[in-house]
Amino acid sequence: MSVRGKVLSVENMNPFVKNMEYAVRGPIVIRAGEIEQELSKGLKKNFTDVIRANIGDCHATGQKPLTFLRQVAAICTYPDVLLKDPNFPSDAKDRAQRILDGCGGKSIGAYSDSSGVRVIREDIARYITERDGQASDPDDIFLSTGASDGIKIIMKLLMTGQPGKERAGVMIPIPQYPLYTATIAEYNAYPIGYYLNEDKNWALDVNELKRSIDEAKPNCKPRAIVIINPGNPTGQVLTKENIQDVIKFAKEQNLFIMADEVYQHNVYAKGSEFFSFKKILTEMGPEYNNMELASFMSTSKGYMGECGFRGGYCEVINLDPAVRAMLLKSISAKLCSSISGQAVMGVVVNPPKPGEPSYDIFQKEKSTVLGQLAEKATMVTETFNSIEGITCNEVQGAMYAFPQIKLPQKLLEAAKAKGQAPDAFYCFNLLEETGICVVPGSGFGQVEGTYHFRTTILPPVEKLREMLGRFKDFHLKFMAKYS
Amino acid sequence: MSVRGKVLSVENMNPFVKNMEYAVRGPIVIRAGEIEQELSKGLKKNFTDVIRANIGDCHATGQKPLTFLRQVAAICTYPDVLLKDPNFPSDAKDRAQRILDGCGGKSIGAYSDSSGVRVIREDIARYITERDGQASDPDDIFLSTGASDGIKIIMKLLMTGQPGKERAGVMIPIPQYPLYTATIAEYNAYPIGYYLNEDKNWALDVNELKRSIDEAKPNCKPRAIVIINPGNPTGQVLTKENIQDVIKFAKEQNLFIMADEVYQHNVYAKGSEFFSFKKILTEMGPEYNNMELASFMSTSKGYMGECGFRGGYCEVINLDPAVRAMLLKSISAKLCSSISGQAVMGVVVNPPKPGEPSYDIFQKEKSTVLGQLAEKATMVTETFNSIEGITCNEVQGAMYAFPQIKLPQKLLEAAKAKGQAPDAFYCFNLLEETGICVVPGSGFGQVEGTYHFRTTILPPVEKLREMLGRFKDFHLKFMAKYS
């Protein structure tokens, strides 16, 4: 019998699950929920609401769903009535009918092929082809439960199944989105962290890539490199040249490229442009265009922000056909991703076209969301940089800022006395004093001795302005207290 | 550089993924798809359509979705308009509003808590409490992407992270649903197969449980026992006494109980009744009622058959609180399951009540589906038993029959010459001759030297009758050919 008479204890459970960390939903977020409970019970605080800037959850912070997208999803759900409803536009009905025709029994209640509904994969391939000016094959695409699921599926294939030095090494940016470290821990792989260059707006530096892989080689078998572009939590958008450098490095080191491109619609800064890794790699010609590459996309981000539908896709090119068969087999045990999520992904890649009845309203809703995000990106960058002791790279894309905070010695000592990381100490105090919930930089990784936090730029403009005001007051008082 | 210049080859990929098998979507199903393509191109065959009896995909075989369920899901998807639509009944609107009120920003496009929308978990707890006459706690429940996801999450916790003899052993029935062997292979666990007793209508025999665990103990650390009730692929419904025996055995051997109860609404036979493992274990009193138990449920089966929504839940009781925290953490890296799937699960556990406007139609639709399934269960059992060389236990529940076929020596030799398992050889011939797609027993496991196949009972009554007719003709001719 094990501890306390239970079969399963923390001592004997899966040690790799125990090692996982996922800061975006970590202890600070649990505390935020408790504070909300306290407020709802009438407890008096310096603030009346918690502002959840910890997670890229667009609708939860007030963004409205796109009309066309929800119309198509609703018709797919209840077609017997809504396909005939005169209040629904014809293009929404056409999209829904096209998806339903691709479903077993013409119902989104049927399982799809493991890789997803065929017509949706065809629409995704067409979208990628138009985006990149390079052909895409529906058979290279599978639908996933959000991007997270696709990332885990591909990473799983790359594992060696061996312990210790024989483990697969996976290169990840530092700072990174914690799904990567969590998955690497869960799979007992070896994380090879390469630091993004904060002084160069979080660029990838090839010398740093080389340093990190060389240091890791005695400890693992490096197999893959993860790039997040536009960056999470760092908000940078990679240049074409930077992408070329990474591809050359991956070729040289024989690495599988995992391109997390879920923020491909979220580019705000003048002069910044999204280039997919596939486009650049293909354009680099015969020496590079047969490299293995997986690109991940999601319905949760962009202008649609449909997190709850858990829609996503992965395009994986140049895979050995026998490995591709194994990939399909490994997906098939999960049967398929949610068909309503697939349908939403289908709309994102096949939006209303000029001349269709929903074109104008769709474009208007889309550009409103993206316009506000651009405005908020600027507001956040400028505000943080206006505060003494804080520096923040330009939020060129994605939905986050990752400002650096200079913490005084006395504060470091106070944090140590409390047994907290200094940035966690800072963020917990911020939460208790202002109700603002952000995630400490230590949850994403940072250069030792530097301190950051990640905030989303998602709250509505006025709310965000208020949040930045509350933040600034707190910061100045808090620094004064410890200086 | 690896084989053929690829980073990833079958030789160096994750060996545990390579070992996975998933017969329900295996080679015979791929061939069925090819035949459909051939038919659509006008190729002449002995039949005009493929009957897919390989997978429990209700809507794909013609079952209609339940009106109320789809109304609620549609309103949740497009509430701005449909909450005001006079064509939708008030109880559907109430259910949708209740779910939306529990969502961030009142949108199913927001992430939920990792364990799922709170009000839906409350409704599930109420459903379980009423079903069992035993209290259920919403905090013991998490929503999952179908039942498969929940099963994988719990099994993952139980892994030791050690190789060889230190691996976790998981007891599974033979025959079993292939998700279990696939997941055990993926996690590099050790499968401890216990044979169900075909002579006693697929009952669990405690002596057989003891035999299998004793034989396995030198090879692994047994940690869990999986029971599928009602049975897949075997269609039996366990008696209360049989469940008590299994619980006593699990206690004695210190095993975590994993109860796959996704077919809890699918009980047809006179005298059969569904008892949850939780109910029985709780009623067994202090010696047993603190045992760790996970029960899995799905929207994909029952009378609703909503596979594509990927809704499901897991209730896990008596977990060490520290392990429960680890469980929640491990789910949080996937963020949450699809909210539309959660909403459908919410309707299943909170259907219209007497006096509500949708009560009558809901009851009628539900009882029609279940009545037809009962009729088909009888038809399938009786037809198979009427054919010489075939025996089939009564389909008491679930959606499948698993008949045994006696194969003549000449046929075994012919199969061997083709390099196929005899039952696979049989099923491939059945498919080519009749268009009927069923899954060979070897994909589920069976006593050595016996041969079976699994067929669903899902095709509409008339189609199923036609299928059984085609089947009988084939079987008699095929046996004659090899006798």
From TrEMBL, chains A, B:
Q: Does the keyword Transferase apply?
A: yes
Question: What Enzyme Commission number does this protein have?
Answer: 2.6.1.2
An MF annotation (GO) of this entry? pyridoxal phosphate binding
Q: Please name the SUPFAM superfamilies in this protein's record.
A: PLP-dependent transferases
Q: Which residues are in coiled coils?
A: none
Q: Which cofactor does it need?
A: pyridoxal 5'-phosphate
Pathway field of the UniProt record reads: Amino-acid degradation; L-alanine degradation via transaminase pathway; pyruvate from L-alanine: step 1/1
**What Gene3D superfamilies does the record point to?**
1.10.287.1970, Aspartate Aminotransferase, domain 1, Type I PLP-dependent aspartate aminotransferase-like (Major domain)
Q: Which InterPro entries match?
A: ALAT1/2-like, Aminotransferase_I/II_large, PyrdxlP-dep_Trfase, PyrdxlP-dep_Trfase_major, PyrdxlP-dep_Trfase_small
Reactions the enzyme catalyzes: L-alanine + 2-oxoglutarate = pyruvate + L-glutamate
Q: Which residues form the Aminotransferase class I/classII large domain?
A: 105-470
tRNA processing listed as a keyword: no
Which key words tag this protein in UniProt? Aminotransferase, Pyridoxal phosphate, Transferase
Task: Please state which protein family the record places this protein in.
Answer: Belongs to the class-I pyridoxal-phosphate-dependent aminotransferase family. Alanine aminotransferase subfamily.
* Subunit structure, as described in the record: Homodimer.
Q: By what name is this protein known?
A: alanine transaminase
**Species whose genome carries this gene:** Patella caerulea (Rayed Mediterranean limpet)
